[in-house]
Structure formats: C-alpha cells, structure tokens
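WP5 quarterly update. Target: Purple acid phosphatase. Source organism: Castilleja foliolosa. Length: 469 aa.
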Amino acid sequence: MGVSRPTLVFCVLAAAVLKFAVLCSGGITSSFVRKIEKSIDMPLDSDVFKVPPGYNAPQQVHITQGDHEGKAVIVSWVTADEPGSNIVQYWSENSNQKHQAKGEMKTYKYYNYNSGYIHHCTISNLKYDTKYYYKIGTGNTTTTRTFWFTTPPEVGPDVPYTFGFIGDLGQTHDSNDTLTHYEQNPIKGQTVLFVGDLSYADNHPNHDNLRSDTWGRFIERSVAYQPWIWTTGNHELDYAPKIGEKKPFKPFTHRYQTPHETANSTAPFWYSIKRASAYIIVLSSYSAYGKYTPQYRWLEEELPKVNRSETPWLIVLMHCPWYNSYSDHILEGESMRVMYESWFVKYKVDLVFAGHVHAYERSERVSNTAYIIVNGICTPGIDQSAPVYITIGDGGNVEGLVKIMTEPQPKYSAYREASFGHATLEIKNRTHAYYSWHRNQDGYAVKADSMWFSNRYWHPVDDSTAAHS
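Structure tokens (predicted):
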C-alpha cells in the first residue's frame, strides 16, 4: 500500500523538525523566576564598609597566593593617614616563634582621587597545610590588626580541596547576599577563584575610586582569611581618556598583586598557580591575545608544562565567556575562542569559568574546532575531550541580571538561570570532583545546579548531562 503525497510531505517535515530539535534543543532552562528588582550599591555608611577603629588602622586587608606552588602568600593592605610600617609579623599556630617579612608601599592618583598608602608584602617558605597568624600595622604610628590563613596541602594528584567561585561581585545588597551565602555554605571553600569585575567603581562618576576603597573593606571579611585568585575583567580596565586616564588597569595594578613572575608571565593579568591537586590558569580577556602577543606565547608554552600526574585538574579562569546563550555579550569571546579552543581540547582542560554575563550557565563538554572555511561544519558539537564552560558572572553587581536568553536553548547549554549566586567545586581525588551552584533566593542560598565531573585525563568517561538524564 502506497503513502499519499500529503502524508509523505508531513513525514518529511516532521523529520526535519525533529532533526532541528535534536541539533538545537539544549538542556534545562530553569523555571525559577527571580523578582525583578533594581540592584543598587549599598550606602557609603553601610556597616560592611566600616573603617576599622584606631589611628591609621590597616584596612582593605586581602591575601592571594604568592608563588607557583602554594608556599607563599601576598598580604596587602591600605593605611589612610600615613604610610606606617611595611612589616608583616607571622607565626604558625603551634609555634611562639615570630617571623617578619618586609614589603613595599605605593600610591596612585586617578583623576581627582588620591589613594591611601597601599602595602604589599610576600611571605615565603611557608609550610603546607598549616594555619598561620599574621599581624600588620606594627610600629608606633599604626593600630595593629591580626588575621590568619591556612596554607594548602602539598601538591599531589589525590589531594582533596574545595574552591569557591564568584564573579562580577560589585557592592550592592545582592553582592552582600552572595558573599554571605558563600561564607555560610556548609561546603567550606578554602580559596576563591574570582573571575573578574571587582568593585564596579567605574560605574560611578569619574570612576570614583572611593568605591574601590569601600569594596576592599567589604570583602575583607573573607579575603583577609583565605586567598582570592584574581582575574581581571572589563571593569578593571579603568581606561578613561576623557578625564585624562589613559593607562589601562591602573587602580587594579596598584591595589592587587598576582604571582605572575613565578609563572614566567610578563604581566600580572595572565599567570598560573598550583594548589593541591589543581593547576589554575588565569587569562586576560582584555589584554592582547592574538598570535605572537605575550599572552599567546605564554599560554602556548604553559599548557605543555602541566603535569597531570601531579595536578590532575586543569582549570582555566577568564572573564568573557566563549559559550553564552544570553542576549548580553553574544560572540564577544569568539575571537579568543578561535585562538585558543583547540589548545583546550588538545590538553584536555577540565573546566573553564568565566563571568561578564550577569547570569548563570553551565555547558556540556563542547567544542567548535572542526570548522574550517570550506567544510561548512560550523556548529558546536559535544566533545568529551573538551572542557565544561561555566558562566558565573552572577555575583550581584549594580548593573543587574541579564534575563533575556536566546531561543531555542542551544544543544551545548546544559543548564541556565537568571539569578545571582556562587559556586563551589569539591575535588575529591584525581578522578572525581563535585560541583554545585547556589542561587540567592529569598535571603537563603539554594543549591540549584550540581554535577559530578570526571577528570579528562584520568577518567574521561561521558559525564554530560544527557548521559545522566
């Protein structure tokens, strides 16, 4: 019995629609809808911005990793009234023997703003997995303050470690919720991997650097006690020729240090560190990255150095995402993706974290490296040698959430949601890590997305969302 022409046409059309759905239909677009509220910066007299008591008391205290291996810490702080001392006293928890390290002091001027006295001091040759106390403000002209931190375990393939992830934080009431939720998360992060856009001071008239000071005091409650690993975003550029400020990254480079020299980098915006069982590579979306640029040459030499028998987990941080299904910043990361994506696949990068888009999204393992100009293959495809790309530019900044998404949801997109929040990654051993993202919801942190990741080098099984659905 033959098939009628209308039926045949219907079947062909149905098959075409089904094929389109398979190619284009993605994972989950969250049904959670956040109330539309304007994000506003907290008032300058908010308690989270409070200047510590005492004459010339150190403020805006923050630490980051100070070397490549995790045995050094850079301590930074600001004194407002006079320079004070550059000395850091430090001692381990179980020792009464105090040591000293001497740092350096710098200041800068930005338009009509004059900074306080910014101190940076590197403490080296620390013991792994040890709690240290440190005191700053020593001398006769400054109020002293004491903090502490714990160094990471010795680098090794099965060393468990937990990272927190925050991006595009700013200093709004939503920002305060995000930081509070990270601090209160039962999954205790030991180091924050920060994917760029810090204070959003440049959103204020003349890039009001007083807002850099308030942000430094706001985050001190976390970053004085555990390192934040810094990635630069577009809001760190502070390039404003109309007001005579033509040197990019001026406030950032004066306020924040990175251990780039220990990673053989020529600039503080791209560098690498080892921490426990992870190798972290930080890239700069807003520095030159084309062929033969310093960043390109550095990354080309850096990736082959990664010893996956020592640090199995290879994580990359950048600001501008390569895979993004929101309306904002579409294709903005495309030229960087074209330059570097084949390297990420070749060297089996596990995870790539980015910010910039003020929302949350997790991809499948995806690549678009098959494309050449004559073959017509220009659709991203599932690739188990590729990283998962996670956009976490949802810290809560003054510019607010991005709510408009492209439709239909692309196949490479596994989960997306327009909410503020933070994430954690619990590395268990060389083969498995547990990831979870926590939205800010009605004053609480709610785990909304989670995933067991399998290491691409040691356990490259299919860990896509589709494989577990």
